[in-house]
Design goal:
Length: about 350
């Protein structure tokens, strides 16, 4: 129904406008009695064989929603009904910010891809904290970043603020220094500033009675030497894992008329590169830290390939936009079939 009826209708309209329209529609739909139960019955699969324990958290299934879809934690309980095992919110910054000028979100239909240059648009971390206080049992990741106006030399303060604000209402943290849409942000991936940032967050975490897992989200555009540095940093700072990968600035092989738009590219063109990055990390790590795969998971087979490459969990974004909640169910069914 989604691919044949709903998607063709939604794709007639501006991507960002339809995103917010969809949010409102899902929220309204869930106000109808028993709709939430019907949706869960349609899409959720419950099985011990799907459960995964990763960095000390037991996930009901390994299929999560990537950051960027529900930045401000406005729809977490409703999205949970579609069968996700966990949801990552953000990227959240200390202060609210509007993000980059519109138009800033583009569908590349021929390529099954999206280009975005949103620029960490969000209502600020404290607005999300208020919403998360009433969340259900869904596992929530908090993806944190710096405000655009904050110079890189002071970025550590922004990350620390967001970490402290979210600590009691999320289950794990993701440090985002890999978005291509905030000027100079990716410079924080360099070895010295990244080590300092992660070490500081680890120190804050160590002071808590119940420390939370801290992960780093990396770009797919890192070369071999940079990936080796990332692995060294993770092992040196003893953070809990990586998310591979964020969006890419590459435009190789694209067919769509929007291919020249600036921003981060997600979707099918990222499938191979993301899997290669996961394989490389798993082959070269010595501490055996977990990796969450994201990037180009458009089919159940894509998901299986990520898991076979060594991923411990996976996340959807563009695949969810192009193929709807049925993709979550088909991935979990494929995992169950593989496990037999």
């Amino acid at each position: 129904m989604y691919n044949s009826l709903i998607k063709p209708l939604l794709f007639q309209f501006d991507p960002e406008k339809i995103h917010y329209f969809s949010f409102k529609s899902i929220k309204l739909l869930h106000k109808i009695p028993f709709v939430d139960q019907l949706i869960r019955k349609q899409f959720c699969i419950h099985s011990k064989s799907l459960e995964r324990e990763v960095f000390g958290i037991k996930f009901p299934n390994p299929v999560g929603l990537a950051a960027g879809f529900d930045k401000d934690a406005k729809l977490i309980n409703e999205l949970n009904n579609f069968g996700f095992g966990f949801i990552e919110i953000g990227t959240l910054t200390p202060k609210p910010q509007a993000g980059n000028p519109k138009k800033r979100l583009f569908r590349l239909i021929e390529d099954e891809a999206i280009i975005n240059r949103m620029g960490f648009n969000n209502e600020g971390v404290m607005a999300a904290v208020k919403r998360l206080k009433s969340k259900g049992e869904i596992i929530i990741g908090g993806n944190i970043g710096k405000n655009k106006v904050t110079p890189n030399a002071e970025a550590i303060n922004d990350y620390a603020y967001a970490f402290e604000a979210l600590f009691e209402v999320v289950d794990y943290f993701v440090v985002n220094v890999s978005s291509p849409n905030t000027p100079n942000l990716r410079e924080l991936q360099d070895k010295r500033p990244l080590t300092n940032l992660l070490s500081h967050l680890k120190e804050l975490n160590a002071k808590k009675s119940n420390p939370k897992p801290i992960l780093l989200k990396i770009a797919p555009d890192l070369n071999t030497a940079q990936l080796i540095d990332i692995i060294d940093i993770v092992e040196q700072t003893e953070i809990d894992g990586l998310i591979a990968t964020n969006t890419t600035i590459s435009r190789d092989g694209l067919q769509s008329k929007h291919k020249a738009e600036a921003g981060g590219l997600s979707g099918k063109p990222l499938t191979k590169r993301s899997t290669e990055a996961i394989k490389f990390i798993k082959e070269h790590q010595t501490a055996r830290f977990p990796v969450i795969a994201v990037g180009g998971i458009m089919t159940a087979q894509d998901a299986l390939e990520k898991l076979e490459a060594g991923a411990d969990l996976i996340q959807l974004y563009t695949g969810f936009v192009f193929h709807g909640p049925k993709l979550i169910k088909s991935i979990n069914k494929a995992i169950l079939k593989r496990n037999k």
